Amino acid sequence: MAVMTSSARRPLLNRRLAEFGTTIFAEMSALALSTGSINLGQGFPDTDGPEEIREAAVRALRDGRGNQYPPGPGVPELRTAITAHQERRYGLGFDPDTEVLVTAGATEAIAAALLALLEPGDEVIALEPYYDSYAACIAMAGGTRVPVTLRPHEETHDGVVHRRFRLDLDELRDAVTDNTRLLLINTPHNPTGTVLTREELTAIAELAVERDLLVITDEVYEHLVFDEAEHIPLATLPGMRGRTVTIGSAGKSFSFTGWKVGWVTAAPDLVAAVRSAKQFLTYVASGPFQYAVAEALALPDTYFEAFRADMRAKRDLLGAGLAEAGFTVFRPAGTYFITTDIRPLGESDGFAFCRALPERAGVVAIPNAVFYDHRDAGAPFVRFAFCKQTSVLEEAVKRLKTLAG
I need a surface site. Which of 34, 182, 326, 388 has the fewest CB within 10 A? Predict the structure, then answer.
């Protein structure tokens, strides 16, 4: 029986959040601990990032920089470093004083942007499957989420099978109504590993301009693109600079996820709107870490190249092991996640499979269905994270191969 208040006689939890409950990440991480399994579910590295950046945080602490409330928009050093990074890598010029906002991780950036830009009844088109906080934040803002599903696609080139999840541009266009306020885009895409192509992004931009839509683009995996894939910020495309809120994160690029340093770059009026919501969430956060991230963003290209090469090797190691274990593997073009299809193993329910996997093989994964409104579309897919030490991945592969037997 639901607990009711004595006065209002209604459930305690806000009805907008009633559908969400405890996140799957908490459930599966707890399962990993209780069974002693290798946790390839939640996407956090098991080693710290560059030593010089960790020492930069220690130096800031000792020097008393950031130990008290930092400026609301973020420390000037970090805002300047963010604009330099965007200019150097993408040719995007931003004013550090009016077009940058530092947040408590990308999750707060998403929340603040949606709370600021939505009113009750506004529709938000999100690419499904989507990071679970998207749905919760849209609900808290009173918006209505409209999923457009990325669907598995298979092509053969020179005798080699290539699998990816593809955006149906006609489906995207058909999803737009007079109530659509904004598009919520994620590329490189978690959990599928898809990196939207220039053709796809151009079509999204043209649609946004034609229908006068705002766009929030989550680009936290911008430095993790592999092979022939290219990360193209949506804000670089014609007509998008003034209508796009771009979100970045230090946690994903520098392997310090616990520092919770993210940021927003956008036109001044958009940043001002997001800041109006953000100031009543955390107000400020991560003071000393902001100074360290400013130094991290100035690291030479060799750091980013080595980081990408290391993750690519880990992707290939885990991907090959999953294929040998009997999974159908969607080789990711970006992020540090691999999506697999469990049907070749005689399974079809990702939830049941993931809850049994720790006992069967001593490994934890995430059922992709939690990222879908259309649960049936995601039912047979399971996500594994490869941002772990090579020895951990080798042991995980060894364990998973027992499924094939």
Answer: 34
Residue type, 66: G
Identity at 51, one-letter amino acid code: E
Q: Are 154 and 163 in contact (CB under 8 A)?
A: yes
Dihedral, CA atoms, 322, 196, 293, 312, nearest 10 degrees?
Answer: 30
Is the link from the previous residue into 129 a cis peptide, with omega within 30 of 0? yes
Q: Are 359 and 35 in contact (CB under 8 A)?
A: yes
- The strands making up 144-149's β-sheet, listed across from edge to edge, are 100-103, 262-265, 244-249, 214-218, 180-186, 123-128, 144-149
pLDDT lower than 70: segments of the chain: 1-8, 405
pLDDT of residue 2: 55
Non-local CB neighbours of 188 within 8 Å, separated by 6+ positions = 194, 195, 219, 221, 222, 224, 225, 229, 231, 332, 333, 334, 335
Dihedrals φ, ψ of 58, to 5°?
A: -60, -40
State the DSSP H helix or E strand holding residue 341, giving kind and residue range, or none if neither: strand 337-341
Bridging pattern class, strands 38-39 and 337-341: unpaired
Three-state DSSP at 338 gives strand
- The per-residue pLDDT for range 54-93, each reduced to its tens digit, is 999 999 999 999 999 999 999 999 999 999 999 999 999 9
